[in-house]
Amino acid sequence: MTMRTLxxxxxxxxxxxxxxxxxxxxxxxxxxxxxxxxxxxxxxKQQEYQKLKKGLAHYSLLPYLEYQEIQxxxxxxxxxxxxxxxxxxxxxxxxxxxxxxxxxxxxxxxNYALLEQYYxxxxxxxxxxxxxxxxxxxxxxxxxxSEQIANLxxxxxxxxxxxxxxxxKWIDNNQLQQEIAYQRFYQTAHEGPIGxxxxxxxxxxxxxxxxxxxxxxxxxxxxxxxxSNFFPGKKPNKEAPILVxxxxxxxxxxxxxxxxxxxxxxxRIPLAGAHKSDVERTLFLALATQNNPKAVDxxxxxLKDQLDDELVNHWKLVTFLxxxxxxxxxxxxxxxxxxxxxxxQWRYWYAVALDELGQKEEAKILLTELANExxxxxxxxxxxxxxxxxxxxxxxxIPEEVMQSVRKSANVxxxxxxxxxxxxxxxxxxxxxxxxxxxxxxxxxxxxxxxxEWGWYNQSILTIARAQVWDDTDIRFPTAFKEDYIKMGxxxxxxxxxxxxxxxxxxxxxxxxxxxAGAYGLMQVMPNTAxxxxxxxxxxxxxxxxLLDPSINIQMGSRYLQMRYEELEQNPVYASAAYNAGKxxxxxxxxxxxxPTEVWIExxxxxxxxxxxxxxxxxxxxxxxxxxxxxDIFEYILTTETGDKK
Length: 646
Known about the structure:
The protein is mainly alpha-helical. Helix content is about 65%, strand content about 0%.
């Protein structure tokens, strides 16, 4: 997997919000005046507010005061103020926020005629239904609205009460087609609430309503499909999805039970090829992740099947690696689509397989080429071929006129001021608006440099990825707070570059990052962990916002990694995996067998943790290079074994 792919995955898997730290920084005169004006407005001190606002006429955050003024007095008659603000500050996210504030006000006041002008139909089901009901009351024929109503009705959840009247009229006028009823029923059967499934039963033909009863039983206990008389065989083609669903559910519980159930029951129900393939895919993945011997036969039997499915191919690879079936690895590689063949993972393992099969010269050529890459497989290839591990740093060169143009952007100016006063969520919104307006790679590069200058490292990392620039390692791998990491590394006797690698993966090196799960700061520490560690290690901590202080966060996160390292046999792979997935899962995965460490890493059952380990190990090596330190993590990966003996 390339560094580009790794970062793009990180963009999908890391979501950062921001919170205000307790420490109060020194503000500029304009910043202080802005904060004072906000306070005066909240307290209703209009004379003081207007005086302060006048002095901020040319300040970049003036729109935030004007927004609050309008929002405080917003009503159905505010259309002119709203329009003026939206037009004036079109580039700011405030314009969209005010539009939605106005939409909510119009819906609340039932001003549907005006609501239709501002509301983007399809965004909120309750508003959709209010507008549709208004149109029906005004005499619009229901047939003209039937498709829109069908789209609202055909979902695997209950819709809000505002939709009840619309749905009743639609159904009473015979607009509900049987095909739509089937679609909603089967969608709900697979993923919706059981109560809704009971309700939808009435819309099936009478001779098919028994299917709802079968679904209800299977949703409560999928093992019921193993009973010889469970399927009556009245509508075999429509009973088949029930069997498929049940076996797939069982597969991620008791693998053996699921496998047996599949073998016993599939002959009773005629299954389409797609149904059979779907179940066998799930069974194979479930068996392979637990290193069940049955996965070996399935991988061999299905070698040529589902070649477009990257996950299936990954677990075929793992199955063959565990059994050292190098011939099957080369055969599978030669069948793969080009995009998979060209990935670093497959190039690496194909070369290793060739080497094991005695084709050493060809293997060496492939590994030597791969060793030029700055990623997990490139670094392993470098160790195998005794080549130096490379940083491949190439600094950005951006035309000065581009830098100045981006720097003077209204979004950048607002984001800079918001960031400076601790309004990190608002700063992020402004930054996202900026990125949506940038057009050229050079503009994205300039924005990344600007964010880096502010110390907004995670935003600079995410921004440079939008430019598809991967080799400016000063931006992509910042070394801020390195003295804290070096100091902490000495205290706990762990490499500082390992700690920095964890921070780079956890938060994209963002000191103020807050995850949706409530983890804070550089190393994404949970408040409960912080409380326990504060007592145990005498780390100053009184509130979760303290975790936005890099020095405190680094102490907490480093101690947590050290704890996992000591608990898990002083194995850096176990410890890193446990940082992501927890100790109990590592203990479970160890039971799946002892293998070369690089094979054990490929066989981590969770894709997220598997990718996490590869990134952390790579980032650890990158930071060792940047700090001028030696590191042997890739020698460790290639020369040790991991896991328990079965």
